[in-house]
Amino acid sequence: MEIGLVGLGKMGGNMRERIRQAGHTVVGYDRDPKLADVGSLKELVQTLAAPRVIWIMVPAGEATDATVNELADLLHTGDMVIDGGNSRWTEDIKHAELLKAQGVAFVDAGVSGGVWGLQNGYALMVGGDEADIARVQPVFDALKPAGDSGFVHAGGVGAGHFSKMVHNGIEYGIMQSYAEGWELLEAAPNVTNVREVFRSWQEGTVIRSWLLDLLVRALDDDEHLAGIRGYADDSGEGRWTVEAGIDMAVPTPAITASLYARFTSRQEDSPQMKAIAALRNQFGGHAVKKES
Amino acid sequence: MEIGLVGLGKMGGNMRERIRQAGHTVVGYDRDPKLADVGSLKELVQTLAAPRVIWIMVPAGEATDATVNELADLLHTGDMVIDGGNSRWTEDIKHAELLKAQGVAFVDAGVSGGVWGLQNGYALMVGGDEADIARVQPVFDALKPAGDSGFVHAGGVGAGHFSKMVHNGIEYGIMQSYAEGWELLEAAPNVTNVREVFRSWQEGTVIRSWLLDLLVRALDDDEHLAGIRGYADDSGEGRWTVEAGIDMAVPTPAITASLYARFTSRQEDSPQMKAIAALRNQFGGHAVKKES
Amino acid sequence: MEIGLVGLGKMGGNMRERIRQAGHTVVGYDRDPKLADVGSLKELVQTLAAPRVIWIMVPAGEATDATVNELADLLHTGDMVIDGGNSRWTEDIKHAELLKAQGVAFVDAGVSGGVWGLQNGYALMVGGDEADIARVQPVFDALKPAGDSGFVHAGGVGAGHFSKMVHNGIEYGIMQSYAEGWELLEAAPNVTNVREVFRSWQEGTVIRSWLLDLLVRALDDDEHLAGIRGYADDSGEGRWTVEAGIDMAVPTPAITASLYARFTSRQEDSPQMKAIAALRNQFGGHAVKKES
Amino acid sequence: MEIGLVGLGKMGGNMRERIRQAGHTVVGYDRDPKLADVGSLKELVQTLAAPRVIWIMVPAGEATDATVNELADLLHTGDMVIDGGNSRWTEDIKHAELLKAQGVAFVDAGVSGGVWGLQNGYALMVGGDEADIARVQPVFDALKPAGDSGFVHAGGVGAGHFSKMVHNGIEYGIMQSYAEGWELLEAAPNVTNVREVFRSWQEGTVIRSWLLDLLVRALDDDEHLAGIRGYADDSGEGRWTVEAGIDMAVPTPAITASLYARFTSRQEDSPQMKAIAALRNQFGGHAVKKES
Questions:
Q1: Where in this chain does the record put each 6-phosphogluconate dehydrogenase C-terminal domain (chains A, B, C, D) (predicted)?
Q2: Which candidate in A283, A290, A291 is best for mutational testing of the D interface (most D CBs within 10 A)?
Q3: Running DSSP on this structure, what letter comes out for residue D114?
Q4: For chain D, what is the domain count?
Q5: Does pTM surpass 0.90?
Q6: Which one is catalytic: B91, B144, B164, B237?
Q7: Residue A38's pLDDT is what?
Q8: Do A219 and A119 share a domain, yes or no?
Q9: CA gap C56, C67 in Å, rounded
Q10: In terms of domains, do C105 and C67 share one?
Q11: What local confidence, expressed as pLDDT, does residue B292 receive?
């Protein structure tokens, strides 16, 4: 089949390649003319035969919002938009309504796979109407991994991004769990082969996983991670997962702890711990450390 | 080689079988005469040719302590004891010293694998002297999984159980992360195929793992886990992991959150939440729920 | 001075009384005609002499929103609206803009004091322009406690409710801290006089506070809180505090833990712990508790 | 009455003064001869008339242990030892048994008050037999604050230190709650008078407390705590409180979060966050910060 693809960065570029390898036609647009097949969204729409399917793969938030808005003006009844970026699921509801008013269908697709996706395939979690999804199934099949899993129609509009968001929240918690364990082993007085302990866990244990494999790979590069600072960004989905829990009164203590550990890792000096130090000094005469 | 095995329960019985399948001789002792090859520890020691290797596989705490004490009296210079149970690593230090006074070597072995170990092999994390471990390597090789990993000499005495303890602490955190994600998806208004979302994650995602596979298996048995109560025991290693963190001033927020979630799951009514309810009533006139 | 007061419930009714005791004129409106001095918002506006000051004391969310919208139509240049309810601070920004378009000033006031406010005074945290606040200072002075503190101009529009929100978040954390301590003491094998321990803390300790006094009062009513269920609602500000932290990348682990403890207290059976139980059963053969 | 006092540091020295001001006789011993009234523990015992009461006020752990051991040899049937230091309650059980074998009574006393105790009195939580405590009541009365509370007989041996330990655990949680709130307010875009917000809370609010008063005092010294590093030690009781919870399966999420925040505050670079950064780099190609 034929598909338009908006956004040809690290993710989008690889996805174009994987879809083409499966024999489909991809017309790509990107603001960077060196990456693009066409010069504008308008030209993209004109190039594709109706009814069109356009997959958006641009940064969540303003960029996605602007692209959906522009496409709402350019597309016609029977066309379809898929948002494969990292949009918040609440945005999907808005975008679906906007497009529906133009007779344009909307499907949201959460995509996992990172830098390994081109080779291994991308796990896809999609939300929307059954018939809409069926129409794009060949592209989903091209993108997904080879096995039986790696693709799910999770529910109505927004369910794809909601599932991907929760996937990332879980990812935060799993990573934090390994990280805490690694720090414990590194601190233990009698454990001398921490890297080898992690390697040994790759088979036969309860905690074997792909993330464990990646951690072993990282330790093979730098056994004690001496060259890496303990500084971690977060990219939206972790925060949204915690907020979704708060909205639905679902406690997420492990995922939240993982998010907060990242917040703290980015602070040069913790304001709240200044307050603790000040209080200890006030009631107990405990010495404080002066800022230098 | 020849080895004595004390404790032939769920774990020990399967391990005897796996060691025998590898062509070694196992003389097993258990308090239950129907399981045992010999009638007493004393008979076990008499049956084995010196220098002896005896693997203890009994419950951590009093039972292991009693067995080590009794073996310290029965064994002789050049013999060796391996504790493959779930002992706390601090116990290993004590046991090694006690046995050393009799000229008996000590190795601690953390064993992972659960009910799947007989078939897939047991992951082994061992602590002790290089030479002692080399002596039992054929048995370790018989027990471990087929691949390159699944066995590690983690460090000195106690390092095996310390590593296994941390393994279990990580396990708590990973399980809690999936569990939080599952509850979020079940609570989401627009996600209708939660089980299939989990199944889809088994390929191509960042969070694919053996525990994920097991959760899919459980959901295949009971899609919404309607027949299972939200009640979880804990078995020592989780607590010890948190306490090891406290001893070494290593924060373990995700693992600790996982442990506390289990504590809470076992309370019919939370005393601390009674106090919260009472306080809210005092200052805000908020209604309390009466005990029925 | 003269002020209109919208909402004469538990809080608003007592506030009317306290303002009148200070010699000011209060014209009150409430949907319940038995409580109201006038029959409608329109009549309230007609009754007050321009320039008018109207204090809104209705539930946050839709009710406050509707009242502000209606007042925006009824009021004129030079009038002023104060929102003394529990609105989220982000609502204040919206309301201030809406009213500003009509030439109407806006001040937000976070109010603390609960059922004790009529007698002890209400602590007030207000946000808005200096001149606007100065104009209503006589009413603020009537409401606030007798001493030097209990009133603050916290910053621009929204700062009053933001401060009140954080006040409540801190309240969650303090209450949770006492509650955890109480449960520990009740569980301790050798502590026989838990209530008296709490009473003793009221003087000379680092943790003496008004909330501690209230807890002692509650324990005097019911020493072991046997008649109260461990069930706690939450009322918005705790969630908003955590979300504000997430928005600004400020970790709030103790306040968040307090919020989650309330979520959990309201679950008959925890879905996430069902998943934990199912997983333990899968890998370790651990028995699960069946739902009865 | 007459009492011996061992340990005349910051706490012990002030306590000697407060007891003397109440008209009692205190014979003090300290390793530092400039502080001491007698030259040795032996001389202290010889100076006091039988039956003797000796109050120990030395650092918990080895120093207290050594002092109790030495006194067990020096004292006689009918004498009494009070441990007023910060001993772990499990030590009390040991010490009571050791002394009982010599016919010497033991009482444990948790003491709160810090640098303010001399002036305001010390809150006392004591454990032991009714008759033993009655015998020293005059000294407890001299030390405690003036009002009706500030003293409790909490239960059997150990109950005093257990209660004091929980007091300190609660203190951790309350301090953390204020500290989180302070950081939120400092980070808020529209709150310009954070210090004044805290000052205003001192009257009429739900969260007024002595710790709040101290925080206002600290902010009066240094409005944004610019001169203080966000670095906080912990002194045993916080850890023990969390461990007591773990032993008794009582979740203490807020207190634990407070303890972990202190651990983190003391790390220059977080090992666990190195692992998180390494993992993000492995699967997502996210840049890491290099160690400089």
A1: 160-292
A2: A283
A3: G
A4: 2
A5: yes
A6: B164
A7: 97
A8: no
A9: 8
A10: yes
A11: 65
| pLDDT of D82 above 80 | yes
**Which residues in chain B have their CB less than 8 angstroms from residue A121's CB?**
203-204
Is the same domain home to C10 and C94? yes
The whole-angstrom distance between C130's CA and the closest CA on chain D is 12
Nearest to B11 by CA among B169, B123, B170: B123
- A151-187 pLDDT per residue, tens: 999 999 999 999 999 999 999 999 999 999 999 999 9
pLDDT at site D292: 64
Q: Are residues C184 and C245 in the same domain?
A: yes
In a domain, B101, yes or no: yes
For B50-92, the pLDDT digits (tens) are 999 999 999 999 999 999 999 999 999 999 999 999 999 999 9
C260 and A266: CB-CB below 8 Å? no
Q: What is the Cα–Cα distance from B53 to B139, expressed in whole angstroms?
A: 10
Do D227 and A283 lie within an 8 Å CB cutoff? Answer: no
D131-151 tens-digit pLDDT: 999 999 999 999 999 988 999
Asked about D171 being catalytic, the answer comes back as yes
Mark whether D153 and D175 lie in a shared domain.
no
Clarify whether residues C44 and C148 are in a common domain: yes
Please report the number of interchain residue pairs, chain B to chain D, with beta-carbon separation below 8 angstroms.
42
Enclosing domain of residue B86 = 2-157
Distance of alpha carbon C190 from alpha carbon A216, whole angstroms: 48
Q: Are C46 and C72 in contact (CB under 8 A)?
A: no
Query: Which chains have 3 or more CB–CB distances shorter than 8 Å to chain D?
Result: A, B, C
ipTM of the complex: 0.96
Residues 184-223 of D with CB under 8 A from B: 206
Contact A291 D229 (CB under 8 A): yes
Which among C114, C182, C222 is the nearest to B284, CB-wise?
A: C114
Q: Which among B157, B181, B201 is the end of a domain?
A: B157
Q: How far is B91 from chain C (nearest CA, A)?
A: 24
| CB atoms C253 and A257 under 8 Å | yes
Task: Decide which of A112, A128, A157 is a domain's last residue.
Answer: A157
Say yes or no: C231 contacts chain A, CB-CB below 8 A: no
pLDDT score at A235: 86
CA distances from C274 to A241, B167, B197, B262, D273 (A): 20, 22, 18, 11, 30
pLDDT recorded at residue A292? 64
- Minimum Cα–Cα distance from C120: chain D residue: D204
Q: What residues in chain C have per-residue pLDDT under 50?
A: none
**C109-118, D50-59, D117-126: segment of lowest average pLDDT:** C109-118
What φ, ψ does residue C284 adopt, rounded to 5°? -115, -5
Asked if B231 lies within 8 A of C179 by C-beta distance, the reply is: no
Mutation target for C interface from B10, B185, B272: give the one with most C CBs within 10 A: B272
With CB atoms and an 8 Å threshold, state whether B253 touches D259.
no
User: Active site residue: B43, B70, B171, B243, which one?
Assistant: B171
- Could you please report the per-residue DSSP string of A210-271? HHHHHHHHHHHHSTT-TTB-S-----SHHHHHHHHHHHTT---HHHHHHHHHHHHHT-SS-H
Q: Which parts of chain A have pLDDT scores under 50?
A: none
Tell me how far apart the alpha carbons of residues C196 and D174 are, in angstroms, rounded to a whole number.
Answer: 20
Which residues of chain A are within 8 Å of residue D185 when distances are taken between CB atoms?
none
Tokens (6 digits) for B66: 């009693």
> CA of D275: which chain A residue's CA is closest?
A179
Q: Supply the residues of A annotated as catalytic.
A: 164, 171
pLDDT exceeds cutoff 70 at D56: yes
Separation between Cα atoms, residue B126 and residue D62, nearest integer Å: 33
Read out DSSP for B248-291? TT---HHHHHHHHHHHHHT-SS-HHHHHHHHHHHHHH----PBP
Q: Which residues of chain B have pLDDT under 50?
A: none
pLDDT in tens, A7-50: 999 899 999 999 999 999 999 999 999 999 999 999 999 999 99
CATH number of the domain residue B116 falls in: 3.40.50.720
Stretch 36-75 of chain B: residues touching chain C, C-beta under 8 Å: none
Contact present, B112 and B85 (Cβ < 8 Å)? no
- Residue A122 has a pLDDT of 95
